[in-house]
Design a protein that fits this description.
Layout: E1 7-12, H1 20-28, E2 37-43, H2 45-54, E3 61-64, E4 75-79, H3 94-112, E5 118-121, H4 139-146, E6 152-157, E7 160-164, H5 171-177, H6 180-196, E8 204-208, H7 223-236, E9 241-246, H8 248-251, E10 262-265, H9 268-279, E11 284-288, E12 293-297, H10 314-338, H11 340-344
């Protein structure tokens, strides 16, 4: 059955020298935002008060020492640390990176323990978070290990969903990383997510080619003919609605993407450049393939505008709304999947 209380949204603050705290504050300045969910920000009361004062916000924070003490109807702030933090907007600072990770780790623990229902992560800097204790290229890889899943970066917006076969892999290594097992795994993850997270019973998935013009019959590389095409045929034979490989250069400009529920790109920029061109500011980075739900805005730390009060919170709002909707969709999927007659009689 559906959760009766408001969904609890845990929020990690990201890089404190970036725009993360600003877009969090702007999102929850409107009291109506508390009608949909209960936010729990993992930072510290002192730190968030600094940002409140800096941006001359009227938001009211409710400080708690542990997430279990959250109060519905309040913008809760968990004191992950208590010492004052020196904020220097726009500066890459390893110490600030440590606070990013403290926030993320505390929020992830609460997600694993079921204290929060979903996790929304503000942008981090992939450089200043690196240390002997934390050696991940970003949120997605960290959460895959922390939550024991096979994660997939799934960029979603109204009318467009893009997944990746390879994500934070150097371009020179991307082609060699694409194997039959990887293709099968990623398509299975996308298909399952479309069903349980987005309520699409028979998803249609398009796959973009590895090489320009899908290799032009081997003239521009043979990976599409020897790896991608045979694997897609094998997947189709199991009854999945999977199509391609499509030449990526005209796929989006011709609006072909509108015929599919999701598109799987072979490498990072092949998928994210068109996605961000079409949906920037409205898009959400969703980590599919995990038992828990995590979303984030579709942009980075934006150091160049940090502290100026001009950051657009739209993508953060969409990330929160998406997490809530996916949580509800999963509830329905799990409930009606076990009780198909109830679905038929609705």
């Amino acid at each position: 059955m559906r959760k009766e209380e408001k969904i609890i949204v845990g929020i990690s603050v990201g890089d404190l020298n970036g725009i993360g705290p600003e877009i969090i504050i702007k999102t929850y300045e409107d009291p109506r935002s508390l009608e949909l969910s209960t936010p729990v920000i993992f930072a510290s009361g002192k730190t968030m008060q600094f940002f409140k004062n800096h941006f001359q916000s009227k938001i009211n924070f409710f400080n708690i020492d542990t997430p279990e003490k959250l109060v519905h109807g309040k913008v809760n702030v968990v004191n992950v640390w208590k010492e004052p933090v020196k904020i220097e907007f726009g500066k890459v600072d390893n110490k600030i990176g440590e606070y990013s990770i403290k926030s993320l780790e505390a929020a992830t623990k609460s997600l694993k323990d079921g204290i929060i229902d979903v996790l929304v992560t503000a942008p981090i800097n992939k450089h200043n978070i690196q240390s002997d204790k934390f050696n991940f290229p970003g949120h997605t890889d960290y959460l895959a290990k922390a939550l024991n899943g096979k994660s997939l970066m799934f960029m979603v917006s109204e009318g467009l969903r893009v997944g990746l076969l390879t994500d934070h892999v150097p371009l020179k290594d991307a082609s060699n990383s694409i194997t039959e097992d990887l293709i099968i795994e990623k398509i299975a993850t996308v298909t399952k997510s479309l069903r349980q997270d987005f309520g699409i019973s028979k998803p249609k998935v398009a796959v973009l080619a590895i090489n320009p013009h899908a290799g032009d019959n081997g003239v521009i590389g043979n990976e599409d003919d020897t790896v991608l095409k045979p694997t897609l045929e094998k997947i189709k034979a199991t009854g999945h609605l999977v199509y391609g490989p499509y030449s990526a250069d005209s796929f989006f400009g011709s609006n072909t993407y509108k015929n599919f529920d999701a598109i799987i790109a072979s490498y990072h920029d092949q998928g994210l450049i068109p996605f961000k061109t079409i949906a920037f500011g409205q898009g959400v980075n969703y980590t599919a393939g995990l038992e828990k739900i995590r979303t984030s805005p579709d942009h980075g730390t934006a150091y160049e505008i940090a502290g100026k009060g001009i950051a657009d919170e739209s993508s953060m709002k969409h990330a929160i709304y998406a997490a809530i909707q996916i949580f509800r969709n999963r509830e329905d999927y799990n409930y009606y999947g076990k009780n198909p007659l109830k679905k038929a009689s609705r």
